[in-house]
Amino acid sequence: MDLCECLRRLIIKRRKGKRILEPFPGPPDHWLFGHVKEFRQDGKDLDKILRWGEQYPLAFPLWFGPSVSFLNIHHPLYVKTILSSTEPKDDVAYAFLVPWIGEGLLVSTEQKWFRHRRLLTPGFHFDVLKPYVTLISDSTKIMLDKWEVHAKSEESFELFQHASLMTLDSIMKCAFSCNSNCQTESGTNPYIQAVYELCHLVNLRFRFFPYHINAIFHLSPHGYRFRKASNIAHRHTEDVIRKRKEVLKTEREQGIVKNKRYLDFLDILLSARDENQHGLSDEDIRAEVDTFMFEGHDTTASGISWIMYSLACNPKHQQKCREEILQVLEGKDTMEWEDLNKIPYTTMCIKESLRFYPPVPGMSRKLTKPMTFFDGRTVPAGCLVAVSVYGIHMNATVWENPHVFDPLRFLPENTAKRLPHAFVPFSAGPRNCIGQNFAMNELKIAVALTLKRYHLIKDINHTPKMIPQIVLRALNGIFIKIKPVKTSPKNI
């Protein structure tokens, strides 16, 4: 295909997109770059989304390059229409993840998604999650022990790297029955570095539209870096699967039969069978392991880091949480399953931080059929719809004083009065996050054990700049200071 033909097709596609999105006014876009140059990855991109949201209520178009457009929605009533459906993830941004995480639950579609979701759901039953509490507590305590040096020095330190190692340690123990020792190893963890690199490169590829063409990206230096990082991630997951298969083979040979409630996520993947007694292929198993390894550690690390930063910025709320936690733990140095529902104020603070700093600030779908929103405006099949989770959570028409940290928003009586899709940190509907209970449990355990041991103090010389790179990160890191909690005799 010659250059003229490519340009002709781009022009036709752009005109069609403009016509489809005509009912939705939005910010002016450049004919070639769209809105790409508006997003400078300087820590202010999400603020721009909020400003445009105030200008264009409910929804507005965003263009990435000359022909790729998304209807960006930021109101619960619009979000309900999308998330109540089983519409697949979009085939632009999410397609860039496939060489890394395969076609697991995050990106799979239609019958494959339905089948995998049904087979994997037992892996998140509370009987399976229950023993994880002790394992997550152990991983958290390793992290907190490492923090002693920062408590003594009273110098600020970066949270995300510590949280990433802790959540990777937890996911390896819980989901894959593997003691990785990643928190105590010296040097940088190669898997975590690979995930960070991959998130950055997927985001870069989406923003630079020539990279949407596979051949161009493949031949570029960024494509080489992506393949190198993918290989590191794949070797990591392949090693986990291989070791677990060897253990299960040995157990079968020895006649060891495990209670179903003690199976981990990988055990369930390896033994899952549908109504025809067909299991998952090796390729499908690796895709689900890659997906859960990434989502189960990186998004949770983001959540933990921003929650602790939020509490450092709000010492009064932090102290209320601490008092509640000390009362519940009664001198224990670990969390138990029964404790998770005994810390309502802490849980409200966690939710309020997830509202302020959603670990996944946006998601997108591709419509397979026309869809009409509550105000009568319609989009056709094939349209790409982006859900701005951050935009919804900070929408002033939905949340009173959205920039004020107020955990009482999540009192049951206040939640009941709010639109159901106003708070969607784990998405919602049939394609919601299958691991959200696991993630919430880990957030509660990490916060509770941290506040029992340390006061979190804001570093007034360092304000993190939010940057969305699949998960919510900080361009300049998330820094806090800590000091030990003086425990009274009754709490020892």
From TrEMBL:
<dbReference type="GO" id="GO:0070330">
    <property type="term" value="F:aromatase activity"/>
</dbReference>
<keyword id="KW-0560">Oxidoreductase</keyword>
<dbReference type="InterPro" id="IPR036396">
    <property type="entry name" value="Cyt_P450_sf"/>
</dbReference>
<comment type="function">
    <text>Catalyzes the formation of aromatic C18 estrogens from C19 androgens.</text>
</comment>
<keyword id="KW-0256">Endoplasmic reticulum</keyword>
<dbReference type="Pfam" id="PF00067">
    <property type="entry name" value="p450"/>
</dbReference>
<dbReference type="GO" id="GO:0005506">
    <property type="term" value="F:iron ion binding"/>
</dbReference>
<dbReference type="GO" id="GO:0005789">
    <property type="term" value="C:endoplasmic reticulum membrane"/>
</dbReference>
<keyword id="KW-0503">Monooxygenase</keyword>
<dbReference type="InterPro" id="IPR001128">
    <property type="entry name" value="Cyt_P450"/>
</dbReference>
<feature type="binding site" description="axial binding residue">
    <location>
        <position position="433"/>
    </location>
    <ligand>
        <name>heme</name>
    </ligand>
</feature>
<dbReference type="InterPro" id="IPR002401">
    <property type="entry name" value="Cyt_P450_E_grp-I"/>
</dbReference>
<keyword id="KW-0408">Iron</keyword>
<keyword id="KW-0472">Membrane</keyword>
<dbReference type="GO" id="GO:0020037">
    <property type="term" value="F:heme binding"/>
</dbReference>
<keyword id="KW-0349">Heme</keyword>
<dbReference type="InterPro" id="IPR050196">
    <property type="entry name" value="Cytochrome_P450_Monoox"/>
</dbReference>
<comment type="similarity">
    <text>Belongs to the cytochrome P450 family.</text>
</comment>
<keyword id="KW-0479">Metal-binding</keyword>
<dbReference type="InterPro" id="IPR017972">
    <property type="entry name" value="Cyt_P450_CS"/>
</dbReference>
<protein>
    <recommendedName>
        <fullName>aromatase</fullName>
        <ecNumber>1.14.14.14</ecNumber>
    </recommendedName>
</protein>
